[in-house]
Design brief:
By secondary structure, this protein is α/β, with parallel strands linked by helices. It has one domain: Rossmann fold (3-Layer(aba) Sandwich), CATH 3.40.50. It is 46% helix and 15% strand. Strands 1-6-5-2-3-4 form a six-stranded parallel sheet, sandwiched between helices. Strand 3, helix 3 and strand 4 (84-86) form a beta-alpha-beta unit. The chain starts with 7 loop residues before the first strand and ends with a helix.
Length: 170
């Protein structure tokens, strides 16, 4: 059950800073697409997201989108954003995470995984030894996603407490 608890919990990707990541030894960010960076209904990245990706890069982070979605969906979005990607990653299985870290030329211990799902993004990150960063889903108003969130609430709350305890000890 501990593998389902995120290391960090954020309201959105925009709360994540390169300085915080660097302080934890992170050099690469593997970020989910749907629900994390944009709504599953958005064909192209919102303008604010370009600035976020730029700030990560300027802060010394390598960025790669790691998504379970189809290549045409992920490719169209990521080419517009100017980032590398892996589609059909089969999260939470290790293969996609390992492939992403290899593409960045980094060990998984120097990668952060940012996503909006406990059972794919967080579980997969924790299984491979990456820093797990949960963000509130953008698509929470969709019925099935809200239902999934209800199942994840307890793990998210534990992650918040873990994060607060870490911050209080630093």
């Amino acid at each position: 059950m501990r593998k389902l608890i995120p290391d960090y919990v954020f309201e959105s990707v925009y709360e994540i800073s390169p300085a915080m990541l660097r302080a934890r030894g992170v050099r690469g960010v593997l970020i989910d697409l749907d629900g994390t960076m944009a709504s599953c209904r958005a064909a192209l990245p919102p303008e604010q997201l370009h600035g976020f990706i730029r700030s990560l890069r300027e802060g010394g982070m390598q960025v790669l989108v790691l998504s379970n979605n189809r290549e045409n969906r992920v490719g169209t979005f990521c080419r517009a954003l100017g980032v590398a990607f892996i589609s059909r990653a089969c999260k939470p299985f290790r293969r996609g995470f390992r492939q992403a870290a290899e593409q960045l030329g980094l060990p998984l211990s120097q990668c952060a995984v940012v996503g909006d799902q406990i059972f794919t993004d967080v579980f997969g990150a924790n299984r491979v030894g990456a820093l797990s960063c949960y963000v509130q889903t953008i698509d929470r108003r969709l019925f099935w996603i809200n239902l999934r969130y209800q199942l994840e609430r307890g793990f998210i709350a534990c992650g918040r407490r873990r994060m607060e305890a870490r911050v209080n000890h630093e």
